[in-house]
Design brief:
The protein is an alpha+beta fold. Helix content is 49%, strand content 7%. The protein has a four-stranded mixed β-sheet. The relative contact order is 0.11.
Length: 342
């Protein structure tokens, strides 16, 4: 038996088929397979990220990973009685590509199959007669097929919150020195020719192949979600882990947006200065916490329709504000029409 992430149990029997007999969602070139039930494959296998994931399975092939597993989403692929691959299209395509190209790891896979045939209740001699053998789990439980396949493709890893993600990414940016290499234009643009190789490294360091599809388009170019991930990491590096995403929150006010743009341009410089302070090569004079506080406070003022003067007066009376934060608020107000000046 095996289970989906939602706990749905399915029974199966182990079997070995020639990989050419199995019906996968896509071809080896990741063209859509027109005879595959398209409602059963929610993933876009045409994405560059999926190509990398499939090649990774083949190049780092560990046969035991394609054997026993209590999860539907891992182990030997699961097929229906009509030989349609219901879970494990990527794994099956990787093995098919391996056989087609004569990849060295396929000898290792075939040897593993022969050595473990008895473990799976199979006949070693019969397996040896199959040209391109693949171990599968043949589902025997009746299911709502479309629902089952959707459950089978659910991630087994709990997604981190955006803040947790930004904190982890920020550490990687700092530890690898990538942040020090990045340049952001005066317009707040980070997707520049110079930064693209750095951004590729960033995703290699922070993102699994399975998750890459969230951050690149079908041509392998970084999408808006990918850009947001990098911006979040840059802000977390510069302005602190707990405030980074609050500073970046969307605002309908032009002045607040100019401040966000200005802080993005300044972020790498702040982060580099903090690194030097931590190393003892600069005097400890970190104002990034005050900058973040001022940015969040300024956004609140604009969204409430108050004036900065009235807000500061009230804060002085009921909730004393740090003098440096107040000074930065006044700088924001004086330069609110220009992210470049900020």
């Amino acid at each position: 038996s095996a289970y989906t992430e939602k706990g749905t149990k399915v029974d199966f029997k182990y079997a070995v088929y020639d990989v050419g007999d199995l019906n996968t969602s896509h071809t080896n070139n990741l063209d859509v397979n027109k005879i595959y039930p398209k409602e059963l494959q929610p993933r876009d296998r045409s994405r560059t990220a999926s190509i990398a994931q499939i090649d990774g399975i083949l190049n780092k092939l560990v046969p035991d990973f394609l054997g026993e597993n209590v999860k539907v989403s891992d182990g030997a692929p699961i097929i229906g009685p009509d030989l349609v691959v219901e879970s494990g299209n990527g794994r099956t395509i990787a093995l098919r590509k391996g056989y087609q190209s004569g990849h060295k790891n396929m000898k290792k896979y075939k040897a593993w199959l022969a050595e473990n045939a008895e473990r799976f209740g199979l006949d070693k001699e019969e397996i040896s007669k199959i040209k391109n053998p693949v171990l599968v789990r043949e589902r025997t439980t009746e299911v709502n097929r479309e629902n089952f396949v959707k459950e089978a493709n659910m991630s087994s890893v709990a997604a981190m919150s955006a803040t947790e993600d930004a904190v982890a990414d920020a550490k990687k940016l700092q530890d690898t020195g990538m942040l020090g290499e990045m340049e952001i234009t005066q317009d707040g643009e980070i997707l520049t020719a110079k930064n693209i190789p750095i951004m590729r490294r960033f995703f290699q360091e922070t993102t699994s192949q399975a998750d890459m599809g969230r951050y690149v388009d079908k041509d392998g170019k970084i999408n808006q979600t990918g850009l947001a991930k990098i911006r979040n990491a840059i802000f977390a590096s510069a302005y602190g882990e707990s405030k980074a995403l609050d500073v970046l929150a969307e605002s309908t006010d032009d002045a607040a947006r100019n401040i966000t743009k200005g802080l993005l341009v300044a972020a790498p410089k702040f982060a580099r200065a903090k690194t030097k302070m931590n190393a003892g090569s600069l005097i400890e004079a970190d104002i990034t916490g005050n900058v973040a506080d001022a940015a969040m406070e300024y956004r609140k003022i604009k969204e409430s329709g108050e004036t900065l003067e009235n807000r500061l007066a009230q804060m002085d009376m009921f909730n004393p504000i740090d003098p440096l934060t107040a000074e930065i608020l006044n700088i924001f107000e004086s330069n609110k029409r220009s992210g470049t000046k900020i």
